[in-house]
């Protein structure tokens, strides 16, 4: 099920989108209805209609006689126009498809991957069938988080794609740093804050033997969630629960910018130096006793380091060492045998 679709694409923008874009460009200043109508080629009555609709969406728009309209604020609204305002990327997020409600952003972007451009992003206000690694359900409450998927079409060999999950992890912690949030990375795909899971990353790939058709990079972050289901209440958290009030659009914009920079360094220059440094410095597992989890078993080990290629080096109880390219680990509790 899909509802409330909005697309950020100059060719597909509605008149309401164009009015909002005009207000954003003049944020903090009054612009007359007459000037907006002349610039957009619509009547003043149509301007008023779209202003009223934007107010209903949650935008704070002041109005004054003989002065016009002024965008004051946007509350915590995920809107393609708000995200694109001052976005400094060359291709990530240049096309945004926003849904008020969707089954899964990963599933939707896979369904349109063939005809979509590199860097297209699908964002939802709610996921009803969100998923994590190994087919697990991902709690995605409406209006409480960031649920989005990026479409990537890199010209690299399929066996070099697994590191993209860690590039995303590094980008997320760098983005959160900008807002005073110091998060950690639990290799390979979880972002941890104060010992609890804040964000998960799910990477899926469609490829042939020697080439990648596309990669879908899904991210789910708990931003405003206050109550979690009983089964995850002890292991999950949100920015709000940890004392951080940050607008989702600002976080998304920062993730886009940090990800593009680190991703392009890898795709174009085969440079992972900064990514590996971040993953080491912000690792939640290095030096810890862990379980290495596969579909059929979980084995006790100790996490030793992260290699220059992003692999996790572990040592098992029998002294055998292994370099993990992908997989899942969990941190062992002090009372585990």
Automatic annotation (TrEMBL):
CDD domains per record: BPL
Catalyzed reaction equations: biotin + L-lysyl-[protein] + ATP = N(6)-biotinyl-L-lysyl-[protein] + AMP + diphosphate + H(+)
Keyword Zinc: no
GO cellular component, one term: cytoplasm
Superkingdom of this protein's organism: Bacteria
All residue ranges annotated as the BPL/LPL catalytic domain in the record: 81-267
Signal peptide: none
Biological-process GO terms, alphabetical: protein lipoylation; regulation of DNA-templated transcription
PANTHER family reported for this sequence: BIOTIN PROTEIN LIGASE (PTHR12835), BIOTIN--PROTEIN LIGASE (PTHR12835:SF5)
Family of the protein in this entry: Belongs to the biotin--protein ligase family.
Role according to the record: Acts both as a biotin--[acetyl-CoA-carboxylase] ligase and a repressor.
Record's protein name: Bifunctional ligase/repressor BirA
Species this protein is from: Peptoclostridium litorale DSM 5388
Classification lineage: Bacteria, Bacillati, Bacillota, Clostridia, Peptostreptococcales
């Amino acid at each position: 099920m899909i509802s409330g679709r909005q697309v950020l694409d100059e060719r597909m923008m509605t008149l309401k989108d164009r009015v909002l874009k005009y207000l954003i460009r003049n944020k903090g200043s009054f612009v007359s209805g007459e000037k907006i109508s002349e610039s957009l080629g619509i009547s003043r009555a149509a301007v008023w209609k779209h202003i009223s609709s934007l107010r209903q969406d949650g935008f704070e728009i002041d109005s004054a006689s003989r002065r016009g309209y002024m965008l004051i604020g946007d509350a915590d609204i995920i809107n393609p126009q708000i995200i694109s305002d001052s976005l400094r990327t060359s291709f990530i997020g240049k096309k945004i498809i926003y849904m008020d409600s969707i089954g899964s952003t990963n599933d939707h972007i896979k369904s349109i991957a063939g005809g979509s451009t590199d860097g297209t992003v699908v964002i939802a206000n709610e996921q009803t069938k969100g998923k994590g690694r190994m087919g697990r359900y991902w709690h995605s409450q409406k209006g409480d988080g960031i649920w989005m998927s990026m479409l990537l079409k890199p010209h690299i060999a399929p066996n070099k794609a697994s590191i993209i999950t860690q590039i995303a992890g590094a980008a997320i912690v760098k983005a959160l740093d900008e807002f005073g949030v110091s998060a950690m990375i639990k290799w390979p795909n979880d972002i941890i804050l104060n010992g609890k899971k804040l964000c998960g990353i799910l990477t899926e790939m469609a490829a042939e033997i020697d080439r990648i058709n596309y990669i879908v990079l899904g991210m789910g972050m708990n931003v405003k969630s206050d109550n979690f289901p009983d089964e995850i209440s002890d292991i999950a958290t949100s920015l709000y629960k940890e004392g951080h009030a940050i607008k989702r659009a600002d976080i998304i914009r920062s993730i886009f910018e940090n990800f593009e920079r680190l991703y392009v360094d890898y795709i174009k220059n085969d440079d992972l130096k900064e990514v590996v440094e971040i993953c080491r410095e912000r690792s939640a597992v290095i030096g810890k006793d862990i379980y290495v989890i596969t579909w059929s078993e979980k084995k006790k080990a100790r996490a030793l380091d992260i290699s220059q290629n992003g692999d996790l080096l572990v040592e098992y109880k029998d002294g055998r060492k292994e370099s993990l390219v992908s997989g899942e680990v969990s941190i062992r509790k002090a009372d585990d045998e």
